[in-house]
């Protein structure tokens, strides 16, 4: 299905968002510029959130097609009529940290810089834009009866539009190194039946454990339901209580590859760990780090990896050093796991050599931290690649 989300969402949401920002005392020109940035920023954030992550992709599909997002039905019409604006903003404020992580304030600040509106107005605009964009996507998904692959395909067609409207500074604010790497991760989800199977399994796991975007959406929408119900019998403007935040525990890491020099300590990840079918290999590229996830007991690099890590390959060909660090499962035979992890790191090294990177530009480096994979076998089945120099 071919659809220009840029024109569609601008037509659906542009006027209501412009009026909202103008009502905050901003100029018409600044309001239009800010709206023209907020909508694509939300789409880019959605693509970043699901790129290479089957669990998040499944949660998004349930939101825009399933019962999880029923409260979003009619949100655009409500905003156009001026009803429940505060409730929609509160809903957006609850969801923004789970979509953008710690980058939400950076994105709002960059909207302010590029449009000339105040940071406060930009923050409110972004909070309102998120549920309205999701409502617009939900409307299109239902109208066209999109399945999961079609929805991902639709999002995958937006690279050209986003490259025209999002500046390099905005991409940096979003935590996106490059759009090619970002959309390569999305292509990986569409690459075959294996990815689809992983998405189904990971979504079920996320639902059963109450983790990931789906849980947060359910909590935030439940809060919104209460607000809308209260609003219908009150003329006040009550605020939705934000859903309680929960930090994902950082998985421990086990050493794997041969030591050449100690790598920098791995920081705990702010976002939930990847949920993946144990029989599936996957590659992601985010915030300058390429992560190669392997199927259980396997050392085969995922198909299509060269598209996802194209920027890393290019850096290696330019003479920059690619540091390859492997991690091991925390369960089972420690010696066997360490050996398999070493073989996986060597497989990743061989992969980059096959792409034309000189072997002298690739270094196998044992990670300094050895606690990252305990309790999370998926993270223990990964090899990370960072660019130095």
TrEMBL record:
Q: Where is the OmpA-like domain?
A: 281-389
* Keyword Membrane annotated: yes
Keyword annotations: Membrane
Top-rank taxon: Bacteria
GO CC terms for this protein?
membrane
The name of this protein is Outer membrane protein A
| Organism expressing this protein natively | Neisseria weaveri
